Amino acid sequence: MQTNRWKTGLLFLMLIASLAGCATAHYTPLGDAGSDVVEQLKENMYRVEYRTSAFTSQEQLDRYLRRRCAELTLREGHDYFHMGGRLDVLGLSRRTAMTVTLYKNPKPVGIPDLQNAKDVFAETIITPPSN
């Protein structure tokens, strides 16, 4: 009898943990995010951070981070951004920080992987994950 209660309790905790993971995997726009997610390092260089649950896929996290960088670029009046200097931390939650350099038109030449913020913003439509 005692063993069945323990098993039932464990199953209940696992269910709650999995539902909590799904609930925290939604995209948070830059305007709604806390102040600790963007830090200005230089005039056109920022450290951008994104946090999700540990259950969020790497692909989804990368989309969120790219979208966050595009939002920042447009908010600051720039047109292009370059992502570099990435740091990923995985624990009970997943945190990724990225150094982002912003550029204005005309498009700079010779910078690999330069991304157009308007294009990224338009292509990264964020839909809630299916549970």
Brief summary of the model shown:
With 131 residues, the chain is of the alpha+beta class. It has three helices and five strands; from the N terminus they run αββαβββα.
Structural commentary:
The protein is of the alpha+beta class and 131 residues long. The protein has one domain (2-123). Helix content is 36%, strand content 29%. It is built from 3 helices and 5 strands; from the N terminus they run H-E-E-H-E-E-E-H. The chain has helices spanning 2-23, 58-75, 117-123; strands spanning 38-42, 45-53, 80-90, 93-103, 115-116. It has a 5-stranded antiparallel β-sheet. Helix 2 packs across helix 3 (117-123). The longest helix is centred in the N-terminal third of the chain and has 22 residues, at 2-23. The two termini are 33 Å apart.
The main sheet comes to: 5 strands, antiparallel
What do the pLDDT scores average to?
77
Silhouette? elongated
Class by alpha and beta content: alpha+beta
Q: What share of residues is helical?
A: 25-40%
Portion in strands: 25-35%
Distance between the termini: 33 Å
User: Rounded to an integer, what's the Rg over CA atoms?
Assistant: 19 Å
The H/E string reads: HEEHEEEH
Which residues form runs of ≥5 with pLDDT under 50?
19-24
Q: Tell me the count of domains.
A: 1
Instruction: State the helix count.
Output: 3
Q: What is the topology, as strand order, of the major beta sheet?
A: 1-2-4-3-5
The count of DSSP E runs of length 2 or more, i.e. the number of strands, is 5
